[in-house]
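Project standup — Tuesday

K.O.: blocked on the structure for the chain from last sprint. Re-posting the sequence here as requested.
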Amino acid sequence: MHEGFLEIENEMARNIMLERIKEDKKIYSLSVYDGRYLFRKEPESIDKMPMAIDVKNIFMDFRDSTCIRQSEYNEQLYLSKGKIERNDWDIVSQADTILGKPCSKAVLRDNPDIIAWFTTDVPFPYVPFGYNGLPGLVVRMEFPAYIIDLKDISEFEESNLEIPTKGKKIKEADFNKMTGFDIKKKLENINSMKVDDNKKEW
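H.V.: unblocked you, prediction finished:
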């Protein structure tokens, strides 16, 4: 959820947004094999998130530091390719047991509202949504508006991770600039919209 949703001055519009977000349920799979990583949105996901960037696939190849992102925005599928960037985390002295595994807490240095709980029992430095840089598998990620929990882990001997190829090619920086500008303008427009109290829509 864009952080601007919580700052919408129009109370009715803000509440409608938050109601939709509560109905949103995303299901992802995270596959890792031979230095490659695929974070994929599964078809049983429920999409209620308004004005969102819909992440379909993130493929990372740590052997050559390649990152390919496939996302949908405004009903257009985009594909961007770049280099893997390492995220900096601050590991704090707080521990918990999640899914029967001992976990440590880490806070993203650039954005302390993003928290990861990871376990070194599974020594894979791969994190949902392309975040990386921790010394173990993340079993829970906490964002300002939602939480991602690991449900189960499966092991396999071999896997052919499908590299995303469909979508309009765009530089990652240009995609971020475009979506950031669009969402900002839409959030500004929401505050000036009139809401039908009976239908709870605008």
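K.O.: great, moving the ticket to review. The first strand starts at residue 28 and ends at 33. The mean pLDDT is 81.
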